[in-house]
Design a protein that fits this description.
Radius of gyration: 23 Å
Strand content: under 5%
Structural class: mainly alpha
Number of strands: 2
Number of domains: 1
Number of helices: 14
Shape: globular
Length: 378
């Protein structure tokens, strides 16, 4: 039987454009404009300089640390939720096929829920207890991003922990008692959404890690590190004795701003940076600036909204889903500006990531649909 083409996200009705216009115009089109403008490095640099002034505000310090912590852990929540869907789907399919051992051992799914939630809670508690004693170059308990006491980071990490624990708990409850118990999990093909989301995560981060390592882009924070350390001389001695290299080395311990000749616009190949031993060094490609992993993670977390969409009722999107989308859109824009304010991304890099992530979403959506075409219920 001929298979119909499934539309991306929802059918192309008025509801479709409610989601498509913000994503394609506000994000993608504006991002293309930003990339064009920041092709001149001086513009990118000046934007970074102006945004960085926000860190003089007390609220902004909590804001940037909250979003930084959020971006570091949100993918764990997403993965736990989508793996729960795949595990439940596997067991339900086998039970429907009258394979009794799966019905007998169905309690394994409950074990997964308990293990996932417990591991999440324990891991976060351990992380919270380590923050006051962590040395990132300026001494135990000193936030190297803010050049200040750890309480901004700790407070934000605690808030993120409670916020994401609530979301994770609600997500697992929704799967077990709304999707599974009401027999919606298989009928609405949530397994397909899980496959798409996890495929997006794997493919996008595989490319991102390669690009981070290959482009070797530094942060605005590194570019002006000489100025930052001069403003905070109390941390100088400890930094010199540490193994951290945040600034440019002119023979005095990586204490300087990066010279103009070693600063590049986003589009220019930076292979020569690999041959300069005086540049700031990082432990892994994850710590380089281009593209933005936090922005990509926020795209992935936004896919959770798909779990509330029913395949046959896509033209009847209720106000709750619309509200979730508006909140997510505000959230990803806030994440974007936070990364620039904290000096750990350039606006050109976040703009590129918006375009990159959108393209990967489209590619993954149609690729997965084609692979599983014979199993799709329209």
């Amino acid at each position: 039987m001929h298979q119909k083409q499934i539309s991306f996200f929802i059918k192309k009705s008025g509801i479709f454009w409610f989601f498509a216009i913000p994503l394609l115009i506000i994000i993608v089109v504006v991002s293309i404009g930003v990339l064009f403008a920041t092709g001149w490095y001086t513009i990118d640099y000046q934007i970074a300089k102006e945004f960085a002034k926000g860190l003089t505000n007390e609220f902004a310090k909590y804001w940037v640390r909250f979003y930084d912590q959020l971006g570091n852990t949100k993918l764990i929540v997403v993965v736990i939720i989508y793996l729960a869907i795949l595990i439940e789907t596997w067991f339900l399919l086998k039970i429907n096929q009258k394979k009794m051992k799966f019905e007998k051992y169905y309690s394994i799914t409950t074990t997964y829920y308990l293990f996932g939630l417990s591991a999440w809670i324990i891991g976060n508690i351990v992380n919270l207890t380590l923050i006051p004693s962590t040395d990132e170059g300026f001494g135990p308990g000193i936030d190297f991003i803010l050049f200040d006491n750890y309480h901004y980071k700790l407070t934000s990490a605690i808030l993120v922990f409670f916020y994401q624990t609530i979301l994770l708990s609600l997500g697992l409850y929704y799967i077990r008692y709304c999707l599974v118990k009401k027999q919606r999990l298989l009928i609405e093909q949530h397994w397909l959404k899980a496959v798409k989301a996890l495929s997006f995560l794997i493919v996008s981060y595989f490319v991102i890690v390669i690009m981070k390592g290959a482009t070797h882009r530094i942060y605005y924070y590194n570019a002006i590190f000489g100025d930052l350390i001069q403003e905070h001389p109390l941390f100088l001695d400890h930094y010199l004795q540490s193994s951290f290299h945040y600034g440019y080395n002119l023979g005095n311990g990586y204490l300087n701003n990066i010279p103009p000749e070693w600063q590049y616009p986003w589009w220019k190949p930076a292979f020569s940076l690999f041959n300069n031993p005086n540049m700031p060094t990082f432990k892994t490609p994850w710590e380089y600036a281009f593209p933005g992993g936090h922005i990509n993670a926020t795209y992935c977390s936004g896919s959770i909204m798909l779990l509330f969409l029913k395949n046959k009722d896509n033209n009847k999107i209720n106000w709750k889903i619309k509200l979730c989308f508006v909140l997510w859109l505000s959230h990803i824009l806030s994440m974007n500006f936070t990364l620039i304010v904290e000096r750990f991304h350039w606006i050109s890099y976040t703009a590129f990531t918006f375009i990159f992530s959108t393209l990967i979403i489209i590619i993954i959506h149609f690729s997965v649909n084609k692979i599983f075409a014979k199993h799709l219920i329209l």
